[in-house]
Design brief:
This protein is mostly beta strands and about 200 residues long. The chain has a single domain (about 5-200), classed as Sandwich (Jelly Rolls). Helix content is about 0%, strand content about 55%. The chain has strands at about 15-20, 20-30, 35, 45-55, 60-70, 80-90, 95-100, 115-120, 130-135, 145-155, 165-175, 180-185, 190-200. The chain has a nine-stranded antiparallel sheet with strand order 1-2-13-4-9-10-11-6-7, with no helix packed on it. Strands 3-12-5-8 form a four-stranded antiparallel sheet, with no helix packed on it. It starts with 16 loop residues before the first strand and ends with a strand.
Amino acid sequence: MPLGANKAAIMGVAGVSTEDVVLLSSQTASGDTTISFTTDLTTTYSIYVFRLYNINISSGNSYIQWQVNASGQTGYNEDIQSTAVRAWHYEDDSVAALHYKTAWDQALGDNIFQYMTNGGSADTDSSESGELWLFNPSSTTYAKHFMSRFSCTGHTHSTTGPASQLQYYAGYINTTSAIDDIQFKGGPSTTFDGAIKLWGLK
């Protein structure tokens, strides 16, 4: 967790600053299809960190995604350029591998939701936890970079598993307009439970 001396702030109260890290808001999903943060990105922190805790999805081999709106826009369909890497290890120790996932990345013009996790399990003891970092979304000069890292208990394919998965995604939102809201959703046609917390880093 690359917060250094400020890592204690993750246990803080919304709106209370501990050194350079501020917990801005927290939401809890309970059978929701989407969770949106529509006001917190209009402040002037240089980095925003979303942490997702024990996200449990309602159907197997599903995923959690996100998208944003630039200032004045609606519909969550901004241009994203991204890359995706996954490592996994079956519980029965039969397979372990690392590879680039072309089906999970995004090219400019796709205008779709960006994966954070894929191949999750709906087992009652399975969940997904991780974080999404969004850099300088209030900038009106540069594209907006992001990276995410998740640990998943799930299936690597619909017919195999279970397995431990580590999934990395990174890229940029190709707009110089400020980003003012973000939405997380499950798919395909799935609901999810779990907590999402948002921090601002100065």
